[in-house]
Structure formats: C-alpha cells, structure tokens
Amino acid sequence: MFVRSIVADAFGTNCYIVAPAAGEECLIVDPGVGVVDRVQEVLREHRLRPAAVLLTHGHLDHVYSVTPVCAGTTGAYIHTDDCYRLRDPLATMNPQLLLALEQQFGRAATWTEPEDVVEVTDRQVLELAGLQLEVAHAPGHTEGSVLFSLAGVPDGIPSDELERTMLSGDVLFAGSIGRTDLPGGDHAAMQRSLRDVVLPQPDPTLVLPGHGPATTMARERTTNPYLLGLAG
What we know:
Elements: E1 2-7, E2 14-19, E3 25-29, H1 36-46, E4 49-54, H2 60-63, H3 66-70, E5 75-79, H4 95-105, E6 117-120, E7 125-128, E8 131-137, E9 146-151, E10 164-169, E11 172-173, E12 176-177, H5 187-198, E13 205-209, E14 215-216, H6 217-223, H7 225-228
Parallel strand pairs: 3-4, 4-5, 5-6, 10-13
Antiparallel strand pairs: 1-2, 2-3, 7-8, 8-9, 9-10, 11-12, 13-14
C-alpha cells in the first residue's frame, strides 16, 4: 500500500495520501494549512488520481485545504456530527489561534465550503480508490471524530508484524490523546471512545495519528497513560 505523509505548515497536522499503489487512484486524508502544492507534487510524481478526501474531524487545522484539494472533482467525507463545521470552521476556532495564523502567513485565514460533502456514519464501510475502509465514530475531541481503518500496511513495513492501518485523527496519538477542552469536546465522551472504540482495536495495527509520529496499538495499549487507566 502506498502511503505518504505531509506535515502542514501550521499546527503540525499530518496529511496522508493513501493508495493501493503508485499510478492508482488515491485518498487524501486531513489536508491542513499550506499542503496543497506538496499534495499536488506527490500526485504528479507518483501518477496518483484523487478519488476522495477523508476528514477525521472538522477542526480547521485538518480541513483548511479541503476545498482546493477537492477542486470540485472529489467529495469530502466527514462524519454527520461534524458536517456543520465545514460551513465555517473559522467560526469555532479560538480567536488567538486565528491571530497566530494571520501573523505567521501575513494574511487573514479565509474559508470556502467544499461543493461535495459526503456524510459518513459509524461502522460504515467505504469502498474508495480500490480500498475498503471501516469508519468508527469516536467522539470526544469533537462530536464527529472518527477512525478510518483498512487492511494492510504501507510499503516497507513488515507485514508479519502489522496487519492493519488506522488513521486516528486527533483521537489517539503516540503517548497521548486529543484534547477535549475545545468547542464540541467532551471528556466523558472521549473516555467512552477510548474504552469502547480504541482499546478493542487489534494489537497488529499501525496507527497514523493527526499529529506526531506513527505508533502501534500494541505500543499504545501498554505505554499510553490515557489507555492504561482504562484497561480492564
């Protein structure tokens, strides 16, 4: 499986490009701030054709470039409960963070809602770009946060050690979890998601998070302090 990660210009958000192989259709996951040119470069270099944009949730740092990446040709897939955020994610963002963005890039952030928004739901199976992905609703960071899971691992990773890949957005990080103190966050909901949705994921799962390095479910199950407190 072809996977490339691009770190956004702001907030360190990971954008992923996923395809069965080079020269095929692909999925673009969480296109954040300033990734458009680099996404296009990867597409050209590896002869990839975008089939859809997947959004793990609706925070601005994960969706900022969704409209130019979609470019009116592919749909933006997001959970029903976060769909409202695509109307204007700037409206729910901390004003100080917006100011920091303006200072960093020398201009105010702008937003245009994508033309084709496709709502996804819990346990839905998506057949896109020759890949089959399972959607798991995991609220807490936002109301509509999801995990996208699929069989197989990126090229170069031993398949005898890992069998699946999970795009965890801001639900699960290496050694940490997503914050719950932003609008739409809910600590109790996050605890339920970690216990009922994250912990049941199989150990041979590669975790590609929304921020920071990749990890595995086996590692997080035994070392992540936010999961250890929920075990058993």
